[in-house]
Amino acid sequence: MKNQRDVLRLVFSHRQREGGGFIVRRPFPAVGITQVDPFLLVDELGPIDYAPGKAIGAPDHPHRGFETVTYVLEGELEHEDSSGERGFLGAGDVQWMTAGRGVVHSEMPSRRLQEGGGRVHGFQVWVNLPRKDKFIEPRYQELKAGQIPKAQTADGLAKVTLIAGEALGAKALTETRTPLVYQHWSLSPGAVVEQPLPGSFNGVVYVFEGEAHVGEPGRAVKEGTMAILGLGEVVKLSAQVPTQLLLLAGVPLNEPMVRWGPFVMNEPFELEQAAADFQTGKMGSIPR
């Protein structure tokens, strides 16, 4: 029998103002936890119902040295960047943006949602890039909801959407710079699933609806709480109420990490260079 991963620590989310003024629920970074290598940040936006004319997004801002993964559960986003890329994300869609050497980016509610209002709920996860990839060319991977692999247990009580990694015989379509798991699990009452995770991966479970029991015999993890997993090769997930959670795991980079706002590098001087490059226009601007 493979070693079960226990819960080492529970981390409770805090509220944080971001972008143009919207509020996110953030388990990390926070006091005492700067990252769960290679993950730098987990933000949950909403669920929130915007009145007409009140929807808020993240206007023009730079990124360098890491990847942003945007997963929309409800609502619509429009994005554009300094390379001329433009796109639309609806419910269930994913955008995996590799910022690399640098890009100026904008993510805003769709014009329809800004004018008419509506419900928004989603996640943004930041994934660090290894030193060798910090200055690669920016790249996008965008998947519509219907393209994203999904699977379920034989009894149908546990369902998974695969943004990265493998589960229940299905495999995600995204290409990652380092081995990663990013899975959205929906658990009905009575669900029990044991998900393999390579022993070399750091792992976390973030519950955003209901209450999961994680590990063996099972530690209760309530809504808005993240469980940092210990060592092992399998994580057991179960629930007695309708529950939704993210399972994130990846090989730690084990490299120096410094960050300042939207820049994540290995050395302090690289942060200074990133700020200078942005301020002098070397990262470009969004053509409109």
What is the residue-averaged pLDDT?
96
The CA-CA distance between the termini, in Å, is 58 Å
Number of helices: 2
CATH superfamily: Jelly Rolls
CATH topology (fold) name: Jelly Rolls
General form: globular
- Radius of gyration equals 19 Å
The largest beta-sheet arranges its strands as 1-22-19-24-17-14-13
Strand content: over 45%
Strand element count: 26
N-to-C SSE series? EEEEEEEEEEHEEEEEEEEEEEEEEEEH
Oligomer: single chain
Stretches with pLDDT under 50, minimum 5 residues:
none
**What would CATH call the architecture?**
Sandwich
Outline the structure in words.
This protein is mainly beta and about 290 residues long. The chain has a single domain, classed as Jelly Rolls, CATH 2.60.120. About 5% of the residues lie in helices and about 50% in strands. It contains 2 helices and 26 strands. The protein has helices at about 110-115, 270-280, and strands spanning about 5-10, 15-20, 20-30, 40-50, 60-65, 65-75, 75-80, 85-90, 95-100, 105-110, 120-130, 140-145, 150, 160-165, 165, 170, 180-185, 190-195, 200-210, 210-215, 220, 225-230, 235-240, 245-250, 260, 265. The strands form 6 sheets. It has a 7-stranded antiparallel β-sheet, with no helix packed on it. Strands 2-3-4-11-6-9-12 form a 7-stranded antiparallel β-sheet. Strands 5-10-7-8 form a 4-stranded antiparallel β-sheet.
Which characteristics define this entry?
288 residues; mainly beta; Jelly Rolls; seven-stranded antiparallel sheet; 26 strands; 52% strand; globular
Question: Could you give the topology of this structure?
Answer:
Blueprint: E1 7-12, E2 14-18, E3 22-28, E4 39-50, E5 58-63, E6 66-74, E7 77-81, E8 86-89, E9 94-98, E10 103-109, H1 111-116, E11 118-128, E12 139-143, E13 150-152, E14 158-164, E15 166-167, E16 170-171, E17 180-187, E18 192-196, E19 202-209, E20 211-214, E21 219-222, E22 225-229, E23 234-239, E24 243-250, E25 258-260, E26 263-265, H2 268-279
Antiparallel strand pairs: 1-22, 2-3, 3-4, 4-11, 5-10, 6-9, 6-11, 7-8, 7-10, 9-12, 13-14, 14-17, 15-16, 17-24, 18-23, 19-22, 19-24, 20-21, 20-23, 25-26
